[in-house]
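Troubleshooting log. The previous structure file for this entry was overwritten by mistake, so regenerating from the original sequence record. Sequence copied from the archived sheet and checked twice against the printout by T.R.
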Amino acid sequence: MEILKVENVTKIYGKGNTAVKALDKVSLSVEKGEFIAVVGPSGSGKSTLLHIIGGVDNPTSGKVYINNTDVFSLNENNLAIFRRRNIGLVYQFYNLIPVLNVEENILLPLLLDGRKEDRNHLSNLLSTLNLSDRTRHLPNQLSGGQQQRVSIGRALINNPALVLADEPTGNLDSKNSAEIIELLQYYNKTYNQTLIIITHDERVALQADRIISIEDGRIVSDERIVRGVEK
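Regenerated output below.
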């Protein structure tokens, strides 16, 4: 089942002689439950693409459909609601709220939506993320790996259609990086959670089902991976 469709998305920053084309008519389709790695050199447009898919940046032209919803046909308020309910975002630098504890940071999308949490779901999530004994800790009382696990919990609390991760291991050591990728893979495989990761780490990319390479704002290759071998 197709969960994401990107049609001819172009993104231009600036105008006239200073205009920069970050994306150039990018199109792709993603099926539910896929694990996709997006790779490419710095400045290639990877993060721009992820932010547009996530509804946090607008395309200059083109369309994005998530679960058959034309994302950018929504008004600003409805887009914010749609994004909270359907998209989980994980960033390199965690983006946690410093005055909120672990549980509050994870529950933030629900709190913003005025919805009550499912305590069983929260408890299971905290247990899987190995954060059950850290629920009252503030972000500055956590290690980098623990903070990133909190951001993953926040991304997953709504059971979103898509989880988008922008260099989720870029600020971590190799041990914590491996643990974070294992967690994301666990939710991908166990709950058929659709996952798109931007990464510079070849080891991370080769664990995906599919690798999309971007250069100069265009997709230059889109290859499926079977048992670590490109096909």
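The longest strand covers residues 2-13. Archived copy saved in two places this time.
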